Amino acid sequence: MKKTVIYNATLVPMNEQMDVLPGGSLYIEGNTIREVAPSKIEREDAEYVDARGMVVMPGFINTHTHLPMALLRGYADDLPLHRWLTDYIFPAEARWMTPENVAVSTRFALIEMIKSGTTCFNDMYFFEEIIAREAKRAGVRGVVGESLIDFPTPSFRTLEEGIARTESILQEWKGDRLITPGVCAHSPYTCSRETLRQAKQLSETYNCLLQIHVSETRKEVDDLLASEGKRPVEYLYGLGLLDDRTVVAHGVWLNEREIDLLARCGTSVAHCPKSNLKLASGIADTDTYLRRGVNVSLGTDGAASNNTLDMVEEMRFAALLPKGVRQDPEAMNARQALRVATINGARAVGLGDITGSLEVGKRADLLLVHLDASNAMPIYDVYSALVYAMNSKNVRSSMIDGQWVMRDRVMLTIDKEETMEAVRRLAREIRP
Ligand SMILES: [Zn+2]
Questions:
Q1: pLDDT, tens digit (0-9, with 9 covering 90-100), for 246-259
Q2: Distance between Cα 302 and ligand 1 center (Å)
Q3: Please, are residues 293 and 59 in contact by the beta-carbon 8 Å criterion?
């Protein structure tokens, strides 16, 4: 079994006590963290990795994304969500999201994600079995679910076919050490009551995560109030969809009662600040959500509406926005922002016992971040440096499930040049 000692690190394990261990070390056996110590651990036969000048921290958990949409980055910008989706994105997906193109686009997205420190993602799209296969090959942890929706998609024509695809993915990937299968319902405005109920039923039968877009725009709330007489979170609660195995993506427009419902049900929010800003959907009041006890996590959404998959940047938006909106510099402090981007994300997707922090018994999903750098030093407070100063290029190396996927910025599991050339070729076809 492979043994690794990472030493000389500033260890930021993101445990409950929020310890920081200068000169700390980690001992990893296979895929599991076996020891965390404030000084150098001595083990025979271990590979020693000197992390001088580096922070060693858990990888980022991106709790809401659509990986293949990286192919449509910059395809249509500066539009409101509903026009962007119906006039541009849905038609482009119908035309271009073939199984082959989904595979290339997924590899492409994973390159950016690894390079910016993501070690685990929660994806909702089509052809999720391909996304699962590519992530597994790249050594990246992921939760995958076919997006159930009431109209024909690139991967299924009827809802029955969509459910059959979801079930086959649930069966194929059950028990995998990297890929966790889940269920996704697109949203309350694209899924009927019956579809939503069936999605929840599936997630209960297979005891897995249910992901759904909720209250992303004010229009969505107004339309549902007009048709159902209820706001989205109240409506989903009434249908029995909300519990601690559900993640609502966005959750921008929530009233007091809805915030309390989410907290009471243990339902997590995947906050997507950049996508919400770019589509002018609004700004989620995450500071209030956290104070009321909602588990707030962080997602990039797809690269077509972000336009990056960079969790470092996303985390900075998540930390800065509440201060500006509330005119309160204490809203979402650096420690909270880093928790939102790591351990809260792991809990949101049901992997809180496995990843999201560096603790004995958890999988080794970690980053070596070079903070002895001109953009980040001096380090008076390591959380401040990570949240307010770090950029994605400071992420030097990444280990997922005990395997290095990047070392010194070199990708080890994906052929970067070949993938980028394939995307260039595709982009020339999409818009000659
Ligand atoms: Zn989304």
A1: 999 999 999 999 99
A2: 6
A3: no
